Amino acid sequence: MNDDNAFGYSFLLADGDLVIEDGELLTVTGQANLIQALTLRVLTPYGSDPFNTTYGLDVTQAFIEPNGVRMIKELIKLNLVRTLGTDPRVSDIRQVLFDDDPAYLAAHPEVDQRLLRDQHHRRVWQVEVTIDTVQDRTTTLALKVGV
Q1: In the 3-class helix/strand/coil scheme, how is 60-122 assigned residue by residue?
Q2: Based on the structure, what is the number of domains in the chain?
Q3: How do residues 114-130 score in pLDDT, each as one tens digit?
Q4: CATH number of the domain within which 115 lies
């Protein structure tokens, strides 16, 4: 089975909007479709889809209870693993890296740590999630998670 069949197809989205070119809706296939679908899954608040009430990311508990940074990150990580792991095209979640983790900072020396602290005060985290797919491929999702 090739990538296009394994990962399906959908309409192409740009900043949440359908992309139209020359009067036609553009589509996305293969691994690009998987990345788009997983990103949408994370951006959708948990339970907000009336047809699939277990779809989406639940970060409510991480931000409404009085938790320290370590606990907030653990709750987000657990919910990311649950959310992404339920997609049948994902076989494993290899790693979840937050923007203040040493490995993330080493991989992204261009990151302004003052800007990160400001985003954290606004309860927004940059997260990279490395996944294995059912096609035995590894890909990384770059996500913003927060309230």
Answers
A1: HHHHHCCCCHHHHHHHHHHHHHHHHHCCCCEEEEEEEEECCCHHHHHHCCCCCHHHHHHHHHC
A2: 1
A3: 887 777 776 788 899 99
A4: 3.10.450.40
